[in-house]
Queue: 3 jobs
Job 1
Amino acid sequence: MLNYIKENLRQYGLIVALIVIAIIFHILTNGTIFRPANITSLILQNSYILILAIGMILVIVTGRIDLSVGSVAAFSGALAGVLIVQQNWPVWLAIIVTLLAGALIGAWHGFWIAAVGVPFFVVTLGGMLIFRGATMLLLDGLFVGPFPASFQMMAAGFIPDFFGGTDFNIMAVVVCIVLAVIFVLLELRKRFLAKKYDVESEPLLFFIIKLVFILTAIGLFAYWFGASNGIPNILIVLSIMILLYSYIANRTILGRHIYATGGSADTSKLSGIKVKRIVFLVYTNMGLLAALAGLVFTARLNSAMPRAGDGFELEAIAAAFIGGASPYGGVGKVSGAIIGAMVVGIINNGMNILGVPVEWQQVTTGLVLLSAVIFDVYIKNRSDRPKQNDALSTKKVQAGKAS
Amino acid sequence: MNTLLEMKTITKRFDSILALENVSFTVEEGEIHAIVGENGAGKSTLMKVLSGVYSYGDYEGEIFYNGNLCRFKNIKDSEKQGIVIIHQELALIPYLSISENIFLGNEQKKNGLISWHITHQKTKELLAKVGLDENPNTLISGIGVGKQQLVEIAKALSKQVNVLVLDEPTAALNDIESENLLHLLLELKKEGVTCILISHKLQEVLKVSDRITIIRDGQVVETLSNVDVDENRIIRGMVGRDIVDRFPARDVVLGDVLFEVSHWTVYHPDIADKKVIDEANISVRKGEVVGIAGLMGAGRTEFAMSLFGGAYGTKISGRIIKDGKPIVLKSISQAISNGIAYVTEDRKQYGLILDETISRNTSLANLKAVSKHFTVDEVQEKRVAEDYRKKMDLRARDVLQHAKNLSGGNQQKVVLSKWLFADPDVLILDEPTRGVDVGAKYEIYMIINELARQGKCVIVISSELPEVIGLSDRIFIMSEGRIVGELSKEDATQEAIMERIMEH
C-alpha cells in the first residue's frame, strides 16, 4: 500500500492540488467560481487549450515540443473564415478541409523532424512564424466574420433538452446518470479481471476513494449543467477526444510505441519500433488538433482574427508539464495534461472574478508551473538515489567497444 | 636511474566490486613502461587513479611522485605535476581548429585576451615536434584519427609534460600511423619524457618499452624487463589464471546448420570507404553456442548489429541464409519477425527503457503477442512478465517495478526476457554478463544452455576469454573486422585465441 502511494504520488498529488486550488478559489470568490453559469463558461474558455494539451502531451512524451500550435490554430481559423464567410462554402466541407490542412501542416513539421532530422525546436519555431504570417496574409490583416449559426453551435451551443425540463435541464442529469453507471461497471470489470488473473491492481481503499471522487464529480456536473443551459456541445467533443486519446495512449500498441520512443529512442529502435514513423505521426496529429482548436476558438469568438491563438502553444505546454509530463520524454498522461489545463483554467478564471490583473495571472501560472516541475524533480531525486552499483562496475569491466 | 613515480598498494573498489587490489609498481625516470592485460583487468582504472580522475581518498594506497605523496583531487592537479593522460577515446572537439584544441583550457593570453599570434606560433612549434605537417587552423574534423592522436600528444607537450600516459594509442591507427607514433615516443624518450603505454598490441610493446607490467583481474602479476621476453611469455602472464569450473555443463545436441552468413561486408556509417567488417563468414547449427572472440574495436558488435536488420553500418553486402533460404533484412522489425534477436552490450542505453516497468520492457519487442485489435491486453502482458520473472528467477518486488531500480544482473534478465518473448531462432548475445556479479553470471549461463537445448542458435560475443571458451561449442576469432580463425571447443585455449588475434 505504501509502495502504491509512493509510485503514484504524482498523480494523486495533482488531483489533491486541483481540489485544494478549487476550494481556495471557492472561498476567495464567495462561491462565484462554482456557480453553474461560470462552470459553463470555464469549460468554453478552456476548451481549445484542452484540445491542444491532448496533442501536446503526446509530442512531449516523445521528448519533443511543438511551438507552432498557436499559429497553426490561428491559420486554421483564418482558413475557415475565408472559406465559410468569404467563399460561402458549406460549413461541414470547410471544417473537413481545415482539419485536413492542419494535419498536412503537422505532417510538414513531422517530415522535417523525423525523416530529415532537423531539430524540432527549429522546425516548429519556423512553423510558428510561417503560419502566423500566413494567417495575416490570408486575412489581409482584418477580422473575418460573423459566421453562420451552424458553425457557432460547435463552441457555443448546448445539447437540447429532449425531456422538456423547464427551469432545470433534465437531459443533463440523465446523461450524467448513464455515464456514472457505465463508469462504475467498467471499473468493476477491470478490477474483476485483474483479480481473476492474479495481477496486482490498486488497493481497495484507493479504488473506493477513486469511485467516490469521480461519482461526486459527475454529480456536481449534473447539478451545474442542469441548473444552467445544459451540456455544452463542446463538452461532448472534448469528452470523446479525452476518451479516445487516453485509450490510444494507454491501451494500444501505437500508444506503447509513443511512450517507448520517448523513454529511450535507442532501445525502441533496437526493439523493432519504427521511431521515425512514430514521431511523424505525433506531429501530424498535433497539426490536426491545432486545427480543431482553431476552429473551436473561431466559433466561440465568431470571428477569425490575425492575432488569434497567440501564446496558446505555451499554455498547452505548461498544462502538460503541470500535469506531470517529463521534459525528457517517456512520461506523461493525457489525463494529467487535462488536469494541468484545468488547474491553469481555474486559477485564471478565479483571478478574473477577483479582478486580479492579467499580469499577476501570468506570474501565478508561471509559479504553479515551476513548483509542479520542482516537485517532479524532488520526487525523481528521491527515488533515484542509492542503487548505483553497476554503472560503475561496467566501467570496471571497461571494454567499451566502438559504436 | 632513479624512481620517478611509485604507486603503492593501490586498491580501488566500485561498491562491492574490487577493480584494483593492492597494485604496486614503479616507473623509472625516462623509461617507457608498458602495462598489458586483458580487457577489464584494471589498466584503465589504474591510470585513472594516477591522473586524479578518481581523487585522493576514493582509493586506498598511495602515490609518490618525485618522492612526494600526491593527493590529486582532479585531472588539473595531476597535470600541474606534469602527469598527462591521453585517453582511448580522443578528447578533441571536432569543430575547433588544431591550435584551439591544443590550447583549450590553457589559452595563451595577453592582457586578458587570447593572443592568436602566440597560439599560432606555439602550435607550429609543437606540431613540428610531433612531426605533424598541418596548418594550425585546420579543423580537427578535417584530419584523420592518426593525426588527431598526434594533436593529442602535442596538446600534452604544451603542458610541460613529465609523464605521458597513453591508453591504447594505436587502437584506431593503421600500420604506418602506428609506426610513426611509436617512433615519436622514442624521440620523446630521448628528450627525457617518461611514458606509460597501455596497449593490446604486444609487438608494439616489445618494440618500444623498457619494462612491462602485467595486470590480471585487478592485480599485478609481474613486471618484466624487456630483455629475452617474447609475446608468448607475456600472453602466458596475461591469461595464466586457473580456470575453475565456472560454467554449467550441457549435453550438446547439434542439428543442421540453421543460420549462415557469408561474405558479409559493412562500411562505417560516417567515415566513407572505411570497411568495418570485411568478408566475414560464420555458420551456426541448431542447438549450438558459437562464440565470437576478439579485442575491443575488432568489430564484433558492429558485425552483430549489422546482421540485425542493418542496425549498424552502411553499404552492407553479403548473404544471410536461414533454414536453407536466403533472407534479406532491411529493418530491425524485419529481423525480429525473421526470428533474429540481438541482446545489446549496453543494456542501459540500448536494452531497456529504464523509466518503465519490468512488464512493459518485457513485451516491448513483441507487443502484438499480447494484443488484440491493436489494443494491448495489460492483464495478459503482466502474466507474461510474471512468467518470465519466475523462469529467470528475476529478483524484483513485482513486475511493476521500474527497470532502473534493478541490479545489473536482474536488468540483464529483463532484457533477456524481452528477447525470449520475441521467440527468436537465432540469439546474438553481446557481452551478456558485463557488469553482472558472479552469481547472476552463472544463472545467465544456465539460460544460454537452456536456449541451446531448445534447439536455438546462440551467438555469444564476449571480451572475457574464459567465458567464450567456457560457453561455446565453437569459436570464431575476429580481428580488425575479419574472421581470422575458427577453433573447436577442444582446441580453444586462451593462448590459442590470443595468438590468432596477435598474428593479424
Note: Chain A touches chain B through 49 residues (CB under 8 Å).
Job 2
Amino acid sequence: MKPTLRVEDLHHTYLAGTPFEAVSLQGVDMEVAEGEIVSIIGPTGSGKSTLIQHFNALIRPQAGRVIVLGQDLGDADLDVKWLRRHVGMIFQSPEQQLFEQYVGDDIAFGPRNFGLDRQEVRRRVQKAMHTVGLDFEGFKDRLTFTLSGGEMRKVAMAGVLALEPSILVLDEPTCGLDPVTSNDLLCRILELRNNHGTTIVLVSHDMESVVRVSDRIYVIVDGRTVLEGTPREVFPEAELLRSHGLEAPQITQVMCGLRNQGLDVPVDLLSVREAEEEICRCFGFAETQVE
Amino acid sequence: MSEFSAFRHITIGQYLPVGSFVHGLDPRAKIVMFTLLVATVAFANSYTASVLLLLALLGIVYLAHTPLRYALQGLRPALPWITFFAVLQLLFYRDQYGSEVCSVIWRGGFVTVTTCSLRQIGLMALRLLEFMILISLFTLTSTTTQLTHGLERLLHPLERFSFPAHELSLVFAIALRFAPTLAGELERIMKAQASRGADFGEQGRLRFIQRTRNMLPLMVPLFLSALRRAEDLTLAMEARGYTGGRGRTSFIQLRPVPSDYLALALVTIFCAAVALYNFRAIDGLVATAVGGYIKDVASLIVR
C-alpha cells in the first residue's frame, strides 16, 4: 500500500552561506501509511522540529524528497494552501498562538481562511470543540484570555482540528500537562485515528505517551534516522537509546532490570498489565486484579 | 528557501565576533564616532561629500574585517520603499532654494526633472546606503554589553541633572538583546497561523494593500509573548538582587587607550571637514569635466 507520507534522504541547513550556518537534517528517511500513528523521538537539537515543518511546506526540501498525499513538496507549483488544509500542524504550546477575543472566533479562524460558508464553519467549530472536550455552548462565547492554560491549549488544538485534516502533526502535545490531562489527550488522539482514520505524526520526549499510542517509532539523532520499528522493536534497544541521551519507558526499564537479575522475562512489553502477566507466569502466581 | 526565515537575516543587532581594530575600540569612542558620522551623512548635500563619506565607510568596513555583502543584506527588504520614495521625489520636487540655479533636464506634463531634483534622489540613495552600512557596522562590531556600558558611562555625568542614564541604557540593552528573540517568536507565530491557512505573502515582505485585521493574528500573540517575557525578566532580575542603578558596580571596566583617542580625533576632523567645506563647487567642476569628456568620446564615435 502506498504510504500517505514519505521522506527520502532529506537534508536541511539553516542560514547556509553565513557565519551562523547550522546543519539540521543529514539524510532522513521516513514512511507513514494512512491511518498510522507514528512517533518521532530524539534528543534536543536532533532536527525533529525541522523535519515535521516540511510536512505542511513551512520549509521546502533543500535536498531529498518529501511526498505527502501524492504531492511532491519540492514542486514549485505546489498548492500550499490545499496542503495546509489537509495536513494540520499543532505546534508546541499552541495556546501561545491564540489571538481572537472569543473562543469560537479563534477556532473559526482556520475554516474561515479556507472560504467555507457560515453554516459549515459553525458545524466544524462545534465538532472540533467536541473532539477536544470543550462544551460548545459553554465555551464558544468565553473570552479567550480568561481560560486556564489547559483550556487554552484545547482551544488552540480545536482550531487546527476544525480544518478536518487527513494528516495531523503534533509537536510535543503533552508538554507541560498534568498526568490526567495528558492521559485524556492521548485517548482523544487514539479516538481521532480510530473514528476518523486520521494519520497522526507525533514528536515527543514523553516516552510514556509514545509507548501508549504509537504504531511505529522513528528515532532521529543528529539529523539522521538511527532506529525505526514498532515500540516492541525499538524500546528494548536500551543501550542504543541511552548512548543517544534517550531513555526507554519505565516498564521497559523495569523488565530489563528484572532480566539482568536473572529472571527469564521478555523486555518488549508495553504496559503494566502485560508485565504483570509475564511476572506472574514466571513465578507461577495466580494473577491478581491489578488495574 | 523558507518563506519565514527572512527575519533571521536581519543584520541589525547581530554581533560578528571577527576581531579587528574596530572591534577592539572603546565603546564610548564608537558611540561618539557613530553619532558624528550619522549627522554628517544626514547633512551631506553634494555628490562629492556623499561619495567621500561612502569611501570612508567602505574603508572602515575593510578595517573591521566584515564581509560587505553581509552588512548590506538588510537593504534588500527596504528596496521597494526606497524606489517608491525616489519616484515620489522625482515627480513632486519643488525647487526651494532660491539661490540655487537648477537647469531643467526634462519636462513632460506636470512633471519637471531638474538637476536639483536629480541630485536630491541621488543623495537620498547614497545616504540610505551609507546609513545601512553605518548601522550594520556599528552593531556587527560591538556586543550589546559593550554598547550598554559605553552609553551608560557617556551619559553618567548627566545624572547630576536627574537624567535617568542607567535606566535608559538598560532599556536600550534589553531592547537590543531581545530583538532577535522576538524575531524568532514572530517566525514561530507566523508558521502557526500559516498552518491554519493565514496568508502572509512571500519573503516576509508585506503587501502594500493589506487590511489591519490581517495583522492581528500576528500582533496579538507577539505582544502577549513580549509582555510575558517582560514580567519574567523583572522577576528574574529582582530575584538576583537588582534594585536599580544606585551604587551598582560593574564587572566590565572601560579604560581608554591612545588608539581610541586617535580614531576619535581622525573621525571628528574628517566629519568636520566634510560638513563645513562646500563641495558644491567641486561638484560643478567634476560635472563639467565629465560632461566634456563624454562629449569628446561621443564625437569620436560619431566621426
Note: The first strand of chain B starts at residue 104 and ends at 108.
Job 3
Amino acid sequence: MAVLEYSGSKKAGVRREGLPLADVVRQIDWILLLAVGGVVATGLWAIEGITRHDVAFNAHYYLYRQAVYAGAGAVGLIVAALVDPDLYRRSWRWIFGGTIAAIVLVYLQGQAVRGSKRWVDLGFFKLQPSEFGKLLFVVALAGFIAERGRRVQEANTLLTTIGLAAIPIGLVFLQPDIGTALVYMAALVAVLFVAGTRWTHLALSGAVTLVGIVGILWLLPAVGVHVLKPYQQDRLTGFTHPTSDPAGSTYNINQSIVAVAAGQFHGRGPEGSTQTNLNFLPEHATDFVFASYSEQRGFVGGSLLLGLYLLIVWRGLRIVTVARDLFSAVVAGGIVFALLFQIFVNVGMTMGIAPITGIPLPFVSVGGSSMIANLCAMGVLLAIHARGRGARVSRRR
Amino acid sequence: MASTTTRRPAAGRSFLPPSANVVEPYRLTPGLALRVGILGVVTLAVFAALFLRLWALEVLQGTHYLKTAENNQLRTVRLQAPRGPILDRNRTPLVTNAAATGIEIWPSDLPKIYADRYRELKRLSRISQVPLYQIAAAIKKRANDPLTPVTVKAAAREDQIHYLAEHRGEFPGVQIAQTYIRHYPYRSVAAQVLGYVGEISSPQLRHDTKKGYLLGDEIGQAGVESSYDSWLRGKAGLAQLRVDSLGRARSDLTLTRPSQPGQALRLTLDLNTQKAAESALNYGIRLARADGEWAARGGAIVALDPRNGAIVAMASSPTYKPSVFAGRVTNRGLADQGLTKKTAEQKNFPSLDRALAGTYPPGSTFKPITALAAMQEHLVSPYAYLPCTGSYTSPNDRNVKKQVFHNWDPFIDRAMDMPTALAYSCDTYFYALGDQFWALPADRGSPLQRWASRFGFGSRTGVDLGPEASGLLPWPSWRKRTYTKKTDPCCWQVDRLWKPGDSIQLAIGQKDLLVTPLQMARFYALLANGGRLVTPHLLFDIENQNGTVVPVPSAPAPQKVGVDAAALDIVRQGLYEATHLPFGTSYPVFGSFPIPIAGKTGTAEKIIHLPGYPTGLLKNQSWWCGFGPFDNPTLVVCAVIENGGHGGTAAAPAALKVFEQYFHTKAATTGPIHSD
C-alpha cells in the first residue's frame, strides 16, 4: 500500500475516491459493527425493562420510540459509512459554521427543559443539536488541523484550535449543559493528542485547564465569584462526599449506588427493581439508565454492556492506527475518546466515581438525538476503516 | 504530524511511479503509535475502574445494598389525631390541646456505625436538652419495633426545631413532627378527676391490643382521660411518606386517611363549684390547723346532684399539676409534684383521688343509716324517748369489767327522740340501737349491715372514674374470714367473734367500718331524693366537633332501695334540726345560711400512721355530709378533712363554701364549733 495516492494538502486537487459500495461492504469492520449492533440491542433490552412502568397503559412507549430512533440511526450509519470522509475535510468550515448556527438556533427558539435550553422542536422530533455537535465538532477541528498540515506542532495552531473549539464549548456551557461541554472538551483533548501536538504544549494546556477547574470549583467560590450555578457546583463535587446531603444534591447519587448494588449478580428483574419502579431513581431512562439497567440485570448485564463498549473503543482505537491520513486519524481519535469519556462519566456517575453531569449513555439512554448522532459517528468510523490503509482494495484509477 | 513534515508538497500524482525519494505521506509513525497506545492504556484503566467498581458494588456489597433498597420505599406514618377537649357542664374547657412540634427518631434510620450513632444522639441530646440516657432508654424500649418513631421530645422549642430543620442532613433518622400536647388552662383544678395522658406501656398494650392501640400511642392514664379514652383519642390518620435509603423524607406527607380529632368530653363538673370545692378544702384544712389539728393535711369534697347522681364537684387534697405529664415527662418534675414512689408519701399522695379511693371511718355521718335500719327493723319508734347519757355500757356485755362507751358530751343527761338524737348526735342513743341490733336472734341475720349494704356501702359506686375503693362494711362473716390463726396468732379466736361492742361501734360508724366520701355522698343523695340510690357519674355527654351529641350509654337511673318514706322523713328532720336548732351540731355554720341546708357532722377516730411516728396516732377525721335546699334538694355535699378534728370545726365550714358558690349566696358570719 505504499502507493502515493493522496495528498493531505489543501493545495492538492480535488480527487474523488470512487469507492464502490461493494468495496465498502467488503472492507467493513465487522467486529465494530457487530459490537455497535450488540450495544444497541442491549440498550433496547434495557429500555424495555426500565420504562415498563413509566407510561401508564403503554409499557412499550419508550421502547418503540427508541427502536425507531435506532432505525433512523442505522440509516445514518450506513450513509456515513458510504460518504468519503475527505468530503468533511474539505468542507470543515461549513460544518463548523453549521454546528455553531444550530447551537445558536437553540437559543433563539429552543425549549427550556428544567431550566436548560437544549432542544429545537422540529415538529416530529425534538432535535438536540449539541448531540450531533459532538461528531461535527470533532470533524471540524480535524479539518482545521489537517489544513494546517505540518504546522500542527506550532503553538499558533494549538491556540487557534483551542480558540475555535471554545466557541461551541462556550455556547453549550451557557445552555447550560455542562455535561456536553465536558464531552466537547474531552474531544478537543483527543483531537490535539492524536494530531501530534507537542508534549510540552499538551502539558502546559493541561496545567492551565487544571488551574481553571480548581479555580472555578473551589477558589473562586471561596472568594465569592460563582461561575457555576450552585447546583452545578454541587453535582460536580458532590460525588466526592456522597453522604453529605443525601436529601439534596447527593440524593441522586445515593439512590443510584443503591440501585446498582441492589442488582447483585443476577439482577432483580424488571418487576422487582424497586429503585427504578418506585421512582427512587430519578431520570432512570436517561442519565441514570445504567443504574436501572444494573439493578434489573445485575453484574451479568452490566458486564455484558461494558464489554461491548470496550470492544467498540478497542476497534475505534485500532481504526485510528489504520486511518489513511491525518484527518481521518484525528476524527477517529476524537470520536473514540469522546465516546470513552461519555461512557466513563455516565457509568462512573451511577456508581459514585465520577461527577454527576447530564451526559446520556451512548446507544442506551432514551433520546433520539443521542442515538442517531452516535450511530452516525460509528458510521464515520466505519467509513474511515473502509478507506484505511489496512483495506485490501485494488485501487484502480 | 511529525512524520508528515518531510513530505514534499504537490508530489503525489498517480501518473508518477513510486519514488524512493518520496516519503510516504502518512503512515503509522512510532509517535502516533505511542499516543494510541496511551489512549489504549487510558481505555483499559477506565474500563478496569468501571468493572471493579461494578464488581465491588454488585457482588461484594450487593446484599447490604439490597436491604437498603428494600427499606427504601414508601413509609406509612401515623398522624396523631388531636385529642378531644374536656369541658365542664357549661362547656368551659378544662383540658385542651396545644399544638406543638416534637422531635422523633426512627431508630432503624440511625447510623449503623456505633460511633456515628453515638455522636448523632449526643448532639441531638445537647440540642433538644433531653439527657442522652433517656433517649437511649426510649430507643431501647422500642428495640423490637423499628417502624414506629420514638418521641424524644413532644414539645420542642422553636429554635431547636429550626436548628434541626437546617441541619437535617446531619441527623439521619431524626424527624420533626407535628404533635399535640395537653394543656390545662386551670392548672391543678380537678387534677385527679381529669387524670393525664401518657405513652402506652407494654402491659397496657398487651391488654388493650384489641382496641387498636399501638406502641407509641398516647393514652389516658388516669381519671376521665383514661375512662373515656376511646372517645377522646380520635382516630389516627395515615400518611405516606417517600423516604430515601437513609431515612430522610423525600416528599411531603401525602394523606391517605385524614386523622379524626377526638370527641369533646363534657363533664357534669361545674368549674366554679369545683374551684370553690378545692379552695374550701384548703380552707377547711386551715381551720383545722388553726384549731390545733396539726396533722390535718388532706381531704376530699364531693358535691353531686341527688336527683341523678351527676357529680358537680369532686376535690381531693393534696393535688398536683397534670401539666407535668404533658410534653416531656421528667423525673424531677414528677418528684416535685409528689408523683414518684419516693416523694409520694412525703407529699401525702397527691395522685390519690381521696373522694373515691380514700377510705375513712364515717363516724357520726353514719348515724342516719343506723336510724333508718332501726326504724325499718322496728327496733325503735322514732318518737320514743331514749336516754342520752354521758356513757353507755351494754347489758349484753358478759365481761366482769364491762366496756364503757363514752358520749362525745360526757355531761348530757336527758331523754331524746330520734330527730333530736340525730341533731344532737347523741352517741349513747345509737349505742343502744347498736346493742339492739346485736341482740337480735340469729335468724334475723345482720340487718344493720344489710341496710348499709343496700345503701351502697361496702361496694363500689360504679362511678365512671377509677380506681375506686369499695370501703369496708364489716359483717360477722367478714370477721370470721379475716381473723385466722395465721393473720392474728395471739387472739384470733376472740377477735373473730362478733361482740356487742362491734355492733355498738358500727352504729356510730366506728371501728372496722370504712367508707369513701363518694359512697357517703351517694347515701346522702338517697336521703335527699326520697330513697333512690343514684350512680354517681361525671359524664354529661360526648360531643362531636360540630356540637352534635354522640350517643353513649348514660349512667343507670336511680334505683329505689325500698326504704320507708316516713322513716326517711324522720332522718331528714333530724338532719334539718342539726343545722337549724341551737343544739344542732352544725347550727353555727348553717343556721344563718339563707338556703335551708340539712346535714350531719362526723368526727371519726382513726389510727393514722405518719412519717416519723413509729406508732399510730389516734386522730379525728372531720366529716360533714348534707344537702340543700331542704324542700327540694339539688345538691349534696360531703366533705372530709383528714385528721381535721371535729366535724363542725373543719368539714362543715368547708362544705358551706361549696353551697355558697353553688347557690350564689353568702352566709352570714359563722364560727366553728366543737361538737361531734
Note: Residues 389 and 671 of chain B are 27 Å apart (CA to CA).
